[in-house]
Amino acid sequence: MRIGEIESKFADIIWENEPLKSSELVKLCEKELNWKRTTTYTVLKRLSERGIFQNNDGIVTSLISKEDFYATQSTDFVDETFGGSLPAFIAAFTAKKDLSKKDLDEIRKLIDSYGEGK
User: Fold this and answer.
1) In what order do the strands lie in the sheet with 59-62?
2) In the chain, where are the structural domains located?
3) Which of 18, 19, 62, 115 has the fewest CB atoms within 10 Å around its CB?
């Protein structure tokens, strides 16, 4: 369920404004992405066929939340790139990036809350 950068910007427009009329989506895409009407409908159709959005009677809504979509994208990336190993991903991510104390505290809280939930 991968989407490119431009499709991602398009998806964000829908998630931030849904439900919205398809004509309103066309206007937003013209303003934000400099797209023509046909481009908007083509991309909407493509993402609807992939089960992300729907256009029923001219009203565009999502079939999957933004959070769920990006969670799936992240999981797929870790699975494909790091063999599903979250520690390997974190090691690679932190190798070139300094984490602040705040970042480390947030990561610890996430790990602790995950441990409590299981």
Assistant:
1) 20-21, 59-62, 53-56
2) 5-66, 85-118
3) 115
User: At residue 118, does pLDDT exceed 60?
Assistant: no
CATH 1.10.10.10 describes domain 5-66? yes
Coil/strand/helix, residue 100: coil
For residues 38 and 57, the answer to whether their CB atoms sit within 8 Å is no
Instruction: Name the pLDDT band for 1 (thresholds 50, 70, 90).
Output: low
Q: What are phi and psi of 20, to 5 degrees?
A: -145, 150
Model's pTM, two decimal places? 0.74
Three-class SS of residue 17?
A: helix
| CB burial of residue 50 (10 Å; 0-12, 13-18, 19+) | middle
What pLDDT is attached to residue 117?
A: 61
In the chain, the N- to C-terminal Cα span, in Å, equals 28
